[in-house]
Design a protein that fits this description.
Layout lengths: L25 H5 L6 E9 L8 E9 L3 E8 L7 E9 L2 E9 L2 E8 L6 E7 L5 E6 L8
Antiparallel strand pairs: 1-2, 2-3, 3-6, 4-5, 4-7, 7-8
């Protein structure tokens, strides 16, 4: 797994009205390499010229022990661009970083008796950072 994310980023937050969704089938989660039910979903908006644009959508799944997340691209879909998704719990973190055409992840952390929180970073095709999304609030606390 990639190393720890150790920098503080300019933060804009995940869309204030994150949607908490009810359970969905495990097949949906399995499509992204996660297990469990969908328990959290939120839009990540961009920065600068992308500030009014949803650049990715975060999906979090819970299987009773682990949370698993993916960040699905909403811009540059099908084009390989740099993305980074980090998921934290009180037990540690997991990061997926690289060049992706459709989504970053899955990232997975143990989260029994813990909350989770995440960060999504995205770059455009010219290599400019267009999203530094950090969710101020912890969520999916078990």
């Amino acid at each position: 797994m990639p190393g720890k994310l150790s920098r503080v980023l300019t933060v804009f937050g995940i869309a204030a009205a994150a949607t908490i969704l009810g359970p969905v089938s495990n097949a949906s989660a399995g499509g992204y390499g996660c297990n469990g039910d969908l328990v959290y979903s939120a839009d990540a908006k961009g920065v600068d010229s992308y500030s009014n644009t949803v650049v990715a959508h975060i999906y979090a799944y819970w299987d009773g022990t682990y949370n698993c997340e993916v960040a699905v691209k909403k811009v540059f879909v099908g084009t390989s661009t740099r993305m980074e998704l980090t998921l934290w719990s009180n037990y540690g973190e997991d990061t997926d970083s690289g060049y992706f055409s459709y989504y970053a992840g899955p990232v997975k952390v143990k989260a029994v008796n813990s909350c989770i929180w995440e960060e999504v970073d995205m770059w455009d095709t010219a290599g400019r950072n267009i999203a530094q999304a950090y969710n101020y609030g912890k969520h999916n606390c078990s």
